[in-house]
Design a protein that fits this description.
Layout (H helix, E strand, L loop, with lengths): L5 H6 L12 E2 L30 E4 L7 E5 L8 E6 L3 E3 L2 E4 L11 E5 L2 E4 L3 E4 L20 E5 L3 E3 L1 E2 L8 H4 L7 E3 L3 E9 L6 E6 L8 E5 L3 E4 L14 E7 L6 E6 L2 E7 L17 E3 L3 E9 L9 E12 L3 E5 L15 E3 L1 H10 L10 E3 L9 E5 L2
Parallel strand pairs: 18-27, 24-25
Antiparallel strand pairs: 1-5, 2-5, 2-9, 3-4, 6-7, 7-8, 10-14, 10-17, 11-13, 12-16, 14-15, 15-16, 18-19, 19-20, 21-27, 22-23, 22-26, 23-24
């Protein structure tokens, strides 16, 4: 599978006009975005009816209460015609280049919605793809039952299994009105039930790596099973695999996969480079021997007791050095090409999964995690700065 043209194709994707006009699906249970930007402070629980198998966009930046402008034309100084809030979902008509280029920004991409234009860094590409729930979870080699699942809807609220205050911060944060999981996150499902009121099938989900032992029930109709064959290696017979990550100061950040001298994959990524003088949050430069690989991981500063970044269900992790720097999937921004991370290499979910399947070594399905030491085990990674 040769994907070295992925960047060009992605940056200039054009989609045909969609039939639904003027419609947003948002976390306040409104049928449309209010042009005034006013919202109810105490929303009611919601039932999401997202369009099926249609390209959508979720406002992914910030947290509850974060607002971004919707503009009349695709550039920063265009008049605002409305507001979008964190987790609002829009029909994604097409992606366009800014009408007036902004010299202070790397990305010049905007998303056209029926309500206006939203800066592309702020909106995640998502889908609502219903799944057929299983009646029984697969049996694992040790006799237990479970499977990995991926969320296939923009977001879905979760049912807790214990008091909210005993969870990690992403659940118990007082600013979080309804705890929920979001598109492309991956979890381990270990139990199944019928909801006591709706009778809809639910899976009980957990995180195996980097998280406290929290569990939550999630609608099985938006949990796509990830089977062992879905994560089989890509080109396992290829020799001399290696990854090159290039950081161009405030310029474009890229990742390239090579088999020998042949480029087989190329994409834009987000790297860490908040402060080159102090090295704070910078992606470490040099040649790295990766040491860990897992299907899903929880990233947190201190997820039990304090606010801060607390990111559950982060998929397709490849640890390039032991101080916590990973190549991984990202659902909390769409700012690929920029320096924005806390040191990790952030990838689009589909890119992260391809890279994860391509790099060595393979890992056991049930554990979903492997740590090793020594050379010659894993695909090496080089991070360099270009002037």
């Amino acid at each position: 599978m040769k994907l070295k043209d992925r960047l060009t194709r992605r940056d200039f994707l054009k989609f045909s006009a969609l039939t639904i006009g003027g419609l947003a699906f948002n976390n306040h249970n409104l049928a449309k975005v209010l042009v005034s930007g006013t919202k109810s402070l105490m929303p009611e629980p919601i039932k999401n009816d997202f369009p099926v198998n249609q390209l959508l966009g979720r406002i992914c930046v910030g947290e509850w209460g974060t607002r971004v402008p919707i503009r009349s034309e695709p550039y920063m100084d265009a008049p605002a015609v409305g507001s979008a809030w964190h987790d609002d979902v829009f029909v994604w008509k097409r992606e366009v280049i800014a009408k007036q280029l902004d010299p202070l920004r790397i990305n010049q991409r905007w998303v056209e919605t029926p309500d206006g234009y939203i800066y592309a860094d702020d909106i995640q590409k998502v889908w609502h793809i219903p799944q057929e729930p299983l009646t029984e979870l697969p049996e694992m080699p040790d006799g237990s039952r479970g499977m990995w699942v991926e969320i296939t809807t923009p977001y879905v609220d979760i049912d807790l299994t214990k008091p909210k205050e005993s969870y990690q911060w992403w659940v118990k944060d007082p600013n979080v009105i309804y705890p929920r999981v979001r598109y492309s996150q991956v979890y381990w499902a270990f139990d199944i039930r019928k909801h006591p009121e709706t009778v809809r099938t639910q899976y009980c989900l957990m995180q195996k790596v980097g998280a406290f032992p929290d569990t939550y029930w999630v609608d099985a109709h938006v949990c796509k099973p990830i089977m062992p064959e879905d994560i089989s290696p890509i080109n396992p017979e290829a020799e001399n695999k290696h990854i090159l990550i290039q950081m161009r100061g405030i310029g474009l950040q890229t990742l390239t996969c090579f088999e020998g001298n042949q480029e087989v994959f190329f994409t834009t990524v987000t790297t860490g480079g908040r402060n080159f003088e102090t090295g704070e949050w910078i992606t470490p430069i040099g040649k790295h021997t990766p040491w860990r690989k897992n299907i899903s991981m929880h990233y947190s500063q201190d997820g039990r007791f304090m606010p801060g970044f607390d990111l559950p269900g982060v998929a397709w992790n490849f640890g390039i050095e032991p101080n916590g720097v990973y190549i991984h999937s990202t659902y909390w921004h769409n700012a690929f090409g920029n320096m924005k991370s806390n040191g990790c290499i952030n990838c689009r979910p589909e890119d992260a999964k391809w890279i994860w399947r391509w790099v060595d070594p393979t890992i056991p399905y049930q554990d979903g995690d492997k740590i090793w030491s020594g050379f010659g085990v894993s695909t090496p990674v080089t991070v360099e700065i270009l002037s």
